[in-house]
Each structure stands twice: as C-alpha cells, then as structure tokens.
Amino acid sequence: MAGERIYPVLTCADLDDALAFYVALGFVVSFHQRRPYPCAVVKLDDIAIHLSAIEGFDPETSYGSAIITVSEPGERHDAFKAGLRELYGRVPTKGIPRLLPPRRKAGTATGFSVVDVGGNWLRFYREGSSEDEATERRSGLARVIDVAARQGDARGDDAQAIAVLDAGLTRYPDAPPIEVFEALLYRVELKVRTGADTASDLAAASALLADHGLGREAEQAFTVAAESARS
C-alpha cells in the first residue's frame, strides 16, 4: 500500500550523543522521548531512523546496520564530512564514530559507509548500483582493491582487507601504476584505522606520483592520505 514506511531501529548507549551526531549529518529530530524508555526518530529527506538507547550498551559489540540508497553519494558524503568537522573539529576516520571515504569502483564512487556513535553501520549506495556488478567490471589488482573494500568497508575487517591487498600487490607486480597507487593509499587508510605504521606505503605512493605523473586527483588523494596518517 502507498505510504508505508520502514524505520531501522539502531541502538546507542547515550541518546543525546546519538542525536548530536545525526544532527551534525543534517538529520532533524522528528520524535524524542525519555520515558518510559529513551528513544527518538531522526529524518533526512526520505531517510528515517529510529534510535533506541540502552544503558550499558557497548558500541564495540554492535551488529546494527542499514543500507540506504541515494541519488548522489558524493554529495551526501561531502555534507556529512562538513557536519562532522563542525561537530568534532575534524572528520573522524577511525574508531567509533567514523566516516569512511567513498570507495571507487569502475571509475565512479558508488557508495560509502558511516559508523555512528552506537557502532551501527550506515551503508550508502548510489540508487540502482550493485556492488557485485561494479566489482565484475574491474580486473587484476583493481578487482583486488574492490574485494578488499568489501572486507574493510562493508564488514569492518581492516586486518583482512590489508591481507587481501598484500596478496594482490604480490600477485600483480606489473599492475598499472595508478592501480598500485590506489592499493597503497587504501592500505594507508586501513593501517591508520588499525594503528599500524604507514611510512613505507606513503613513500611508495609518493614515488609513483613522482615517476608517473598520475594527475591532480591522485595528488589530492595522496595529500588526504598523508594528513590522515599524521592525525
């Protein structure tokens, strides 16, 4: 029937912290109660999320997740990044909460993920896109990067994602420089999340920039990765 809606219910430890986070993303609070139990509803355009606070809840143990399709993931990501920077003074890229960069597949950014203060994953995808289809369009090391992204960005297993990239870089030693560069920068991103040293990957990526002139977009991506490693 027309007008039916589904509200994902996401758990958090502190409702006020959760509301501050979602308001920073651009959501508005459409419902809020503290008794008999704390809960709220936040809305952004046609996206509606129900938040439920449980005392003693540990965000590290959360299995909460929601898939959200939007017309322009890049625009949504930019807005989220600006809001989180205003709230926290920086864009959180590791720990809880965090905003993950758009993952490029087949040359376009098809989606990104946000981990909220309750440890819940919000997975944004371009409307009509398919992660499986996007992965099939790439091959060699590029496809390895996409597979690694499933581990790191979709499942949150950063260590396994690094292992996938390591194996791919060994398997495809003659991959195009731009693919090696992409793999190295993603490995930097993953190592930042896990607290591992990124110096060797940044040095290798910098050498590729100097030797192959990979373009302004690659230079900008390197700058972002280097800044993230320093923070």
TrEMBL record:
Highest taxon of source: Bacteria
Record-linked InterPro entries: Glyas_Bleomycin-R_OHBP_Dase
Alphabetized Gene3D superfamilies for the sequence: 2,3-Dihydroxybiphenyl 1,2-Dioxygenase, domain 1
Name used for this protein in its record: VOC family protein
